[in-house]
Amino acid sequence: MEEAIKKIIDHMTLEEKASLCSGKNFWKLKGIGRLGIPSIMVTDGPHGLRKQAGDADHLGLNVSVPATCFPTAVTSASSWDVGILYEMGEAIGEECVQEQVAVVLGPGVNMKRSPLCGRNFEYFSEDPFQAGEMAAAWVSGVQSKGIGTSLKHFAANNQEKARLVSNSIIDERALREIYLTAFEKTVKQAKPWTLMCSYNRINGEYSCENQWLLNTVLRKEWGFEGIVMTDWGAMNDRVKALKAGLELEMPGPSQYNDKQIVKAVRNKRLSVKVLDSAADRLITMALNAHKVQAKSYDAEAHHQIARKIASDSSVLLKNQGALPLSKGQSYGIIGAFAKTPRYQGAGSSKINPYRVDNILDALKEQKISYEYAPGYSLENDSIDPDLIQQAVDLAQSKERVVIFAGLPDSYESEGYDRNHLNMPESHNALIEAVAEVNENVTVVLFCGSPVLMPWRNRVKGILLSYLGGEAVGSGCVEVLFGDVNPSGHLAETFPLSLEDTPCYDNFGTDSLDVEYRESIFIGYRHYDRAGIEVAYPFGHGLSYTNFEYSDMKILWDQERKEGAVRLSVKNTGLIKGKEVVQLYIGKKDSAIVRAPKELRAFQKVSLNPGETKEVELKLDARSFSFYDVSIHDWAIEDGEYEIYAAASSRDIRLEGKLQVKGIVIRKVKEASEIDFETLFKGKLPFIAKDKTITVNTRVGDVLKSEKGKEFFGPLIDGYKSHFSSDDDAGRMMLSMLYDMPLRGLCMSGIISRGELERMVKMCTV
Fold first, then answer.
1. Do residues 584 and 656 share a domain?
2. DSSP per-residue codes, 743-765
């Protein structure tokens, strides 16, 4: 095929080559009929297919075709099961085949730096190793069907606030160890067809044109051979981006930037070899995708896969004899989410499901008798005394009560961040009131990120269902009544307060410069190092049975730098269950600043009552490595390491020691004694303060200027008129508006890039 593609490129005009570098429309890539290059389609999303029905609108917000809504990444990551992530990927790939979609835009592997990030439901974990393993399995599953994936958002996109223009300032070690590792693992293990750059700057330079990120790291170090595309509307300087290794700008068509490429080649600012290389990759992907023949899939089978993932990912946070429930007792089912469950996140990944299983219908199918009270309104957050009294009256007459609560759509979404960790007061007040009159209360939480639980010591059971997809109702009931033994474990820490979180002082501020002053200490690394008590630790998850760990053996080949930890796990209870065995490694006498321990391997194992299995957890050089900024490479520190087999980051079951050969390091100061500038090793790359209006000036800043208001006010009013604040898409777009750069307005179709640049020039005259 290489020779055939070379011949195609030889017959292309310069304009045709450049035209391939931007989309045909919102979701399709351009084809060239005379040369046999097909137009292919890409579409969201990471937990199900969001193919827009009919013609695409300018913002890709029209209704999408029916598809299976699988549990979101925050949920599926809690399974710690790479097998079911692969199975989900296969199913999504099959749906892409039917709908003739060539590339699905996912998964998202950005780190959960703060629990406030509005898009955390779409990301896997606060730990890069776990996120990388989950993502690699998902990508491999999708691509096994001949469908491409787009790993996103590359990189250091950890907040929604001003995400189109913010500047993530991160020291090199943190960038490598925390924020790039999941991308690296997925690229090396699963070879995604494409990778999507993020909107933000990294250390002063936009991701889309970051030569170090896209060329040095991604292509040269990791060996990535696929396509790099922009997030939708992320392009800044088209020629600079192409030089850095970004082939595809989306959405399209971008006639202005296509012409910029042609102009740059003609005036020798851009080598035609760079353009030919981009055309080669784009044509290769189009021809490979075109080989896949349409084939219908079994929607019911996919629904059952979604159901299995939902139940296997449910996390039993607390259980004081409350669960499993018995089908013969009388139940009060309370909370509007029982009838109208929150099962997915809001934003670009929102799926149009074939059907949604709710709790009430699932109980009826199981022939479980109950009475229902809504307890709160879905229309607003205010406490309704009448609804609470109705729920209290019901609870008083029942043996057991299950309350369904959590976060409404409006609390967490792409486009904006949360500003607190609270659930709606109406939900909290309901739980408190019901717990006053019934001592057998279980709370089921539907949410996409951690919440504070002021009532957690007053209820007997807490089941975290997160956002469980279209089968959340049936999957949840299976777990509540013991048909499925819960085996989910947290992929993030639930803190006791917002003030305890690692970047409390450096998240969601008005500054465009986002300083990652916590460095490598995010998630459990931070809580463990600071000795902070948490509500529920990373890796935590209870079961209806018990597991015993024993006989740990540590094997290590120093020459090959590979090994394993082997241990036995026994189900000591009376029912079948699954345990997530987690392996952490630490170094107590380290000469460098480290977290007390870090996740380095895990395995989920299924055990019958009384059964024992040997679990083997692989080790390699990276299991013991840190990123040495003095040599810009990975290195192993010489000395003794602590090996922990655990059921969570704070539930250590077995400990061992291993001597590993490496480099001897001179002791450095504690991180608390090092200021951020020293840690960063250079002048901090802040965004230059300039009141001149450019295409990258935020809309909110433009409107502060009289000239800006005069020239752009009507345009911005026109943009606002597209949206309503009463729906998810409208809320998302309006919340982003004032932090959006002017060039972001081009994606709405109300102005072209050329017209925008002319208006900017008029503003600066």
1. yes
2. GGGGGGTSS-HHHHHHHHHHHH-
